[in-house]
Amino acid sequence: MKLRLSANTWVLIVLSVIVVAVGSEAARVYLGDKTGGPSPDMAKQYDPDFKVGDPAPDFSLKDKDSVPHSLTSLVKGDTLLMFICGCENCRNMQNYMVKCFERLGDRAPTVVSVATIDPASEAAYRRDVRLKQTILYDNTPNPAKMVLASQQKIGDIYKGHPCPRIFRLSADRKVTWIGRSPAQMPSPNAGYQMVAAQLGMRWKGDHDADPSAPEAPVPNFSPPPAIGTTIPKHTVPGH
Predict the structure, then answer these.
(1) 232 pLDDT more than 90
(2) For a tag on the chain, would you pick the N or C end, based on fewer CB atoms within 10 A?
């Protein structure tokens, strides 16, 4: 006996298949593949035009007192270059880094931040964020003493937004690590785990980590990411 389905039933079946297919593609693009890395489409969108091992594009931006500083003049050793806007996510990440740096001591890198906040609000920002850092301002297009000849903001060149976005540089201004964009994260909390791993710290409960590594502090801004969330050390595929 053959099973006969009504026209409405067939329509529902077809629509269900379409919804499942579209949902699977969205999950692939936004959550990445099973390895925890971003999908090729997502990676391409947030990839800067340089890669690990390249010189970081140089620039000159002003501090709150309108004094210009070049990136080359500020990078004298292991340095984290951060892009921030002053939002809660930026504040939480930088305060989490304070906790990490306290455990690292002299091994902690220097921090240079490129900000899009109003320079007049820096004092208030520093009261909320205890991270020792140099803050430069990217509020106007940098007029073109640039390695990359354009009127783009520095944050556009580095794909620094959405923020916080973090890059690691060596003393010769070479890029040693490109942190994943928040838009590529499997969860908002995964950024803390990514930073801790990059700083050589052991996430609590991660039994595969080096037991001699310092334990990463647990962020108290929101629940930590689940153990097993894979955050590769070099988070831009192919770099």
Answers:
(1) no
(2) N
- Token pair of 152, please? 């783009």
> Directed axis angle between helix 88-104 and helix 190-198, to 10°?
30
Number of H helices, E strands in the chain: 7, 7
User: What is the torsional sign of CA 150, 140, 142, 238?
Assistant: negative
pTM score: 0.73
Ramachandran sector of residue 179 (left: φ over 0; alpha: ψ -120 to 50; beta: rest): beta
For 165-218, how does the pLDDT look when each residue is reduced to its tens digit (9 = 90+)?
Answer: 999 999 999 999 999 999 998 876 899 999 999 999 988 777 777 888 889 998
Mean pLDDT, rounded, for 61-66: 96
- Upstream peptide bond of 143 is cis (omega within 30 degrees of 0): no
Answer yes or no: are the C-beta atoms of 161 and 170 closer than 8 Å.
Answer: no
Give dist(CA 222, CA 205) in Å, integer. 17
| pLDDT at position 185 | 87
Residue closest to 187 by CA, chosen among 230, 150, 148, 137: 230
- With 0-12 CB in 10 A as exposed, 13-18 as middle and 19+ as buried, what is 207? exposed
Report domain extents, the chain. 8-239
Tell me which residue has tokens 């820096």: 122
- Tell me which residue of 95, 71, 102, 87 sits closest to 174, measured CA to CA: 71
- Measuring CA to CA, how many Å separate 165 from each of 34, 42, 179, 212? 23, 15, 6, 28
